[in-house]
Structure formats: structure tokens, C-alpha cells
Amino acid sequence: MAGVVLKHLTKTFGDVTAIDDLTLEIADREFLTLLGPSGCGKTTTLNIVAGLETPTNGQVFFDTENVTNVPPERRDIAMVFQTYALYPHMKVYDNIAFGLRMRHLPKNEIEHRVQDGAKAMEIEHLLERKPRQLSGGQRQRVALARAIVRNPCVFLLDEPLSNLDAKLRVTMRTELKRLHAELEKTFIYVTHDQEESLIMSDRIAIINEGKLQQLGTPEEIYNQPTNMFIAGFVGSPPMNFFQGKLNNKNETWQIEGANFVCELTPEIADRLSSNTPNEVSLGIRPEDIEVSPTNKPTAHAKVVVREPLGSDLFLTLDLSSITFKARTRSNVGFNRGDSIPIYFNPTKLHLFHPTTGKTLLQST
Amino acid sequence: MKTQLKINNPITKRLALYFLVMLATLYILTPFLWVVSVSFMNEREVTQMHWIPHQPTLQSYETYFHAHTKNLDIGTATARQFPRAIINSLVIASSVMVLNLFFGSLAAYALARINFAGKLALMLFYLCSRSVPGIAIMIPMYLLIRSYGLLDTHLAVILAHVTFTLPFTIWILKGYFQTVPLDLERAARVDGCSQIGALFRVFLPVTTPGMIAVGIFSFISSWGEFFFALLFTSTISSKPVTVVASDFAQELQVDFTIIAAGGVLVVLLPIILAFIFQRFIIHGISGAVTG
């Protein structure tokens, strides 16, 4: 069993607060991703879990054991680094065996584990090479093998895919998910790639400026973001935002923006918090904006840019000098400069406070 | 048809650069090449002023290693001391190299990796100490060495040489160590090493090129140093080869071929070392500069 609990973690570097009162519980065998922009504190958090940094305040627990002051060499963890951190002066075999030798395992046990780990990562043919003789993908596999053979309770992965090309990244994502399912261990994964986090995680903890923004499943994060930062960070292309006035006409709530009006469904209206202001920020994802709808259009917008992407077409649209994106099918024949009808799917609207950015919708 | 020399042509620029480098190299090497040539001549040929010996001989070199059997009375006393002087230089330079590597690497690691109070002041202190001329501190150093009863010992010269080589070693190694990714030591810590263990098992082996570079530098610096060696030594029990070579000036008459052979013997080992380890020297120094 190896759940990880972070209690009121704070880390400061001089005047800079890297982590600000972070409390997080990671269940045993869970794949949890720390997601956020560069410099948000996610790697610092991972380093504290690893014991490579000590927190200014707060505690780290592995299950019920307080490991806050336990050095990394005595924590039951394995770590995969963004740069892979393979020892350049050692062969692949010795890189993988290093951690086992440090723990004084018998030679035959080391041999057995290294061969098993190499087989699992399909790198048996590389054991006699040095790291400089390997490709990026091969180095990544060696780094993973080095972690696997340790058989730790917790795996820590610090953006391990960020140095790979796009195609290899997709392959390795699947590989990591398979590994997690097979090993049945706790994975704590750090990334700034929101797509990666949505695909791979059981839960995602979004961090910004050292603070936990939201903790939830990928579906919860994507469909019920708790603030504008999360709504804009998760999703590609990001969510569109419009300023509007909330009013009630004929017992129907609607949002009135510049050159558009859209009604809220009763389900969304019921979720409005009691202190919802009149001015709101309306959020809607590109895939929830219908182009050439069968319903009555919400507005007419001008096509500024067409971005074909295989089966999809992304349109950058202009509505009274507000620029936003819509996603549609690639066979739609709109050109730059065309004025086209658009429809905001009312079941997919998000409302945020215009000043604080927090969601105005209570969660379901 | 006029042929214009295109100044901006890359080939022309490269040729000009090579020409200038050759000139500079010849300027530096010519005196030394003359000394090497003279060392293989007999006494009569020296005055004939030609570059290549017509009757090359190893007689001058033999003087140093069989001086006690030769009935030579020109430069014999000095030549007889050469083998012992070379051993002294080896002992001193090797000790300086080892001390530089040990203390220099630990200090550089602390400066490169650890934040502590006074770090910047310490770095500036090392840097400024390099600008103090030896002659300005020779009297207090002499008095200090004498007070410890270390005059005319290897240790006196070693301490003096470490004093002026260690700051340079620390400075170069600090820059080099900063080019080593922090993740390597972190990986070693996670794999089970203590901080010291990560230093010796992973960090220092990775920094071998830089360590070799500063090791060779400190060795060559110590080997070729004359001033403090002259100041602190008086007998052949501790005199290094640079001091013994200068004793030729005290001889009433000298055979130039013997002096030339002595000069070649003095610089031979540093040249061989620099040639063998040139790749590490370039890699180590460039890593420190770009880091």
C-alpha cells in the first residue's frame, strides 16, 4: 500500500513562493497528474515527494508514515526525469542495475531483475551500449526500466515525454498507461501538456502559481472547470470567453453579449449560485459552437482564419472585434471573409465571475 | 584582366587566418626548435649556425645520466644533479596535482551546487588572490615557511605551488561542474546514494575530462615554476629541475649543447602530457568557459 498525502505544503525560495499551502491525497495505485504551466510549482512538489527538496512548511506521508525528513535514498520511490538522467559513464546494464547495487541486492537477483526490466521495455539488445549511443526514445525506455526494476511503492515521473517527438510521445503515452495497469503502483506524473494529462490520468491536480486550482477526474476537469484559468488551460484549442449580461426575460435566463443573445437551459440556470452578478464571463469550447446550425443562430461571425487539421476544421471567427475559435468538419466550405451563422450549444455553457474568474455554476 | 582579391571570401579569410596562426606558431616555436636542434649537436657545430645537425649525437643527453663516469669539467656539477632534480619535480608536481584535484573538486562542488552564506565573497576572494603577484608576498611566505621548519623540503614548494594553483583549479572546476545536469545527482540520490555517494559515484566520474584538464594544468604549472622553488630550496634534496637548470649560469664555462639538452629534458614531460591529454584539456576548459 502506498498512498501519498501532502499536508499544507509550502516551499519558498527567498521571496518567491513556489508552493503555497498545498494539500493533496493520492490514493494507492492511482495515476495522478500534476498539471500546470511552466513555473507553477509542480516539479517542486514532485521533488518534495521524492525528498530532493525539503518543504518550508508542511508534511509528506507515505500511507501513515511521515517521510518529510527522510532522505530520498531511504524513500521507497523511483523517479523518471525529463532529461532521463542516465549515467553517461555507465552502460545501459549498469544504469539499470545501479539502484539495485546501492541497495546491496545479491548479484543473481540483480541480473534477474535487470533482464526482466529490459525485456519489459524491449531493450535487451541495448544493454551493452552507453547512453550516448541511444536515441531519445531508447533512453526513455532505459530510464523507465531503471525505475521498474526497483519495484518501488511510488513512481514519480517528471515530464518524461516532453523531449520526444510527437509520434513517439503518443506511443509512449500508451506504454505508460499499460505499465501503470500492469505494475499496479502509485504514479505521480508531472506535465504541462493538458492533452497528455487528460488521456493518462485517473485524476488531475491543476496547479497555478503554487496553488491547487482543482482536483478531479479528467471528465470533471474538462466539463466542470472551477475557474477561468482551468477552463482556458485545459482543452485544445482553449475555451472561448465572452463578456455578457445575465438577465431574466419571461422566466428564462439569458446571456446578452455584444451582438448575441443565448438562453440558458433550466439545468444550467438551476446551478447558478445565489450571488451571481449581472455581469458574467461566458465560456464555451470550440467544439460546442455549431457552424451553419439547424437551430436559430446565436449570432453571425466573420471567418478570419481557416485551419484544416485532417478530419477537423478550426475556424477563427470575429464577432464585433471579439476573436474566438470554432471546430467543425473539414468538408464545410467556408472561406476567409465569409459571414456565417453560429450557434452556442446551451447545454455546454460555462459561466464565470468576471473579476475573480471563479465558476458561477455549482457542481452537479 | 585584373584578378581582384575578394577580402570577404570565406576561403581567403581562412587562408589569412591560417597564415597568421602559422606566423605566431613559428614565432613561439622557433627558439625551442633551435634548442632541440642544438641539443643533438656537438660543440663545434653550434657555432656553425645551421638548423639540422650534420653529425647528430646523444652525447649531451648522456652527460646527464652518466655524468659521474664522464671526465667532463664543463657543467658537470649541474648535470650530475639533473636526475635527482627530475625526481624532485615529479614528487612536487604530482603532489600539487593530487592536492588540487582533491581540495579543488570539493570546493568547486560546494560552490557549484550548494547555496551558503558568503559564497560570492569566497568566489571573489579566490579570483582576487590570483591577481596578487608572488613577489609581493615572497617575504612573508619565506618567514612563514621558515617558522615551520620547512625550508629546503618538498613540502615547502608544494604548499607554495598549491597556493597559486588552487584558486585557478576551483574557478575552472566550478564552471565545469555547473554544466553537469543536476538531474544526474538527483537520480543517484533516488537510486540510493547519499549526497557524498552521489558525488563520488556519479558526479566525479562524469566530470573526468574537466578533472584531467585541471590536473594537467596544475602539474605543468608546478613543474615549470621557478621563483618559489628557488626561494624555498637550497640543496639537491629538494631542488626541482627548473632551479637546477638555472645553476648552469653559475658555471664558469658552459657547453651550450649540454644546456640545450637540459632545457629539452625540463620541458619534455609537460609537452608529452599536454599532447596526450590535449582533448581533455580543451574539453575541460571549454566546458568551464561556456558553463
Descriptive tags:
heterodimer, A: 364 residues, alpha+beta, 9 helices, elongated, B: 291 residues, mainly alpha, globular
Share of helix of chain A, binned: 10-25%
**CATH topological fold name of the largest domain in chain B:** MetI-like fold
Named at the architecture level, the CATH assignment of the largest domain in chain B is Orthogonal Bundle
State which percent range the strand residues of chain A make up: 25-35%
Pair with the most extensive interface?
A-B, 24 and 17 residues
Secondary structure: number of strands of chain B: 0
Please identify the structural class of chain B as seen in this structure.
Answer: mainly alpha
Our Rg estimate of chain B from Cα atoms comes to 24 Å
Give the termini separation of chain A.
32 Å
> What fraction, in percent, of the residue positions of chain B are helical?
over 70%
- Largest sheet composition of chain B: none
Q: What string, H for helix and E for strand, traces the elements of chain B in order? A: HHHHHHHHHHHHHH
User: Regions of chain A with pLDDT < 50 over 5+ consecutive residues?
Assistant: none
Note down, in words, how this protein is organized.
- The complex is a heterodimer of chains A (364) and B (291).
- In chain A, a hairpin with a 2-residue loop joins β16 and β17 (312-319).
- Chain A is built from nine helices and 20 strands.
- In chain A, the strands form four sheets. Chain A has a six-stranded mixed beta sheet with strand order 6-7-8-3-9-10, with helices on both faces.
- The longest helix of chain A is centred in the middle third of the chain and has 18 residues, at 166-183.
- Chain A has helices at residues 42-50, 92-102, 107-120, 136-148, 166-183, 194-200, 218-223, 228-233, 266-270, and strands at residues 4-13, 16-26, 31-35, 57-62, 65-66, 77-80, 154-158, 186-191, 203-208, 211-216, 240-249, 252-257, 260-263, 279-284, 289-291, 299-309, 312-319, 322-329, 339-344, 350-352.
- In chain A, α2 (92-102) packs across α3 (107-120), α2 packs parallel to α4 and α3 packs across α4.
- Helices cover 24% and strands 35% of the residues of chain A.
- With 364 residues, chain A is α+β, with helices and mostly antiparallel strands.
- The longest helix of chain B has 38 residues, at 76-113.
- Chain B is mainly alpha-helical and 291 residues long.
- Chain B folds into two domains: 2-73, no CATH class; 79-290, MetI-like fold (Orthogonal Bundle).
- In chain B, 34% of the residues are buried.
- In chain B, α5 (119-129) crosses α7.
- Chain B contains 14 helices and no strands.
- The radius of gyration of chain B is 24 Å and the shape is globular.
- The termini of chain B are far apart.
- The A-B interface holds A 47, 50-52, 71-73, 77-79, 81-83, 85-89, 98-99, 102-103, 146, 150 and B 181, 183-184, 186-194, 197, 202, 205-206, 208.
